[in-house]
Specification:
15% strand; 7 helices; Rossmann fold; alpha/beta; globular; 182 residues; 41% helix; 6 strands; EC 2.5.1.129
Length: 182
């Protein structure tokens, strides 16, 4: 099972497409959407939040620290926070597990599970880079939403698929969502 956290950064389409890809691959998933992400979703995509939630096999409220997913005894294979705001990234890097997304990230890291962070911010401050480095040192994969253009990405959809494919690769999930380097 893969946990997907969508936070309040631009690029919520990456998280939505990841959910769709997991469904297409018949991989069980769980979803957490931050309150700020709900605002961004309303601005960036045409899909109602309720429809996005139906893409998940399991949905957890953002502020439910008693949710089973927040325990190290809850089994999941990996976590992708996509997009990941700098606020969420900073909280995770500094051990501040104050909501369901940051708590499940804390669990994922402490249990040495695959943890993929897809930061969406530009330009980056030194503290952003230091927080990413700290998470990388703990075993997280830092996968900025930087599409590769070698894959014949003619459309925005192709560029989104490139990032989603790289996320799946980082979670060790076979996929053919994007054209690989030949």
């Amino acid at each position: 099972m893969i946990v997907v956290g969508i936070t309040g950064a631009s690029g919520v389409i990456y998280g939505i497409r990841l959910l769709k890809a997991l469904n297409g691959l018949n991989i069980e998933n769980s979803l957490i959407i931050s309150d700020a992400a709900k605002t961004v979703i309303n601005h960036e995509v045409k899909e109602p939040i309720e429809d996005i939630i139906t893409l998940a096999d399991n949905y957890y409220e953002f502020d439910d620290l008693t949710a089973s997913i927040n325990s190290g005894s809850f089994k999941f294979d990996g976590l992708a926070i996509v997009p990941c705001s700098m606020k969420t990234l900073s909280s995770i890097a500094n051990g501040y597990a104050s909501n369901t997304i940051t708590r499940v990230a804390d669990v994922s890291l402490k249990e040495h599970r695959k943890t993929v962070i897809v930061p969406r911010e530009t330009p980056l401050r030194s503290i952003h880079l230091e927080n990413m480095l700290n998470l990388s040192k703990e075993g997280a994969v830092i996968l900025p939403a930087m599409p590769g253009f070698y894959s014949d990405s003619d459309t925005v959809d192709d560029q989104i698929n490139f990032i989603v494919g790289k996320i799946l690769d980082s979670l060790n999930i076979e996929n053919n969502i994007y054209k690989r380097w030949e």
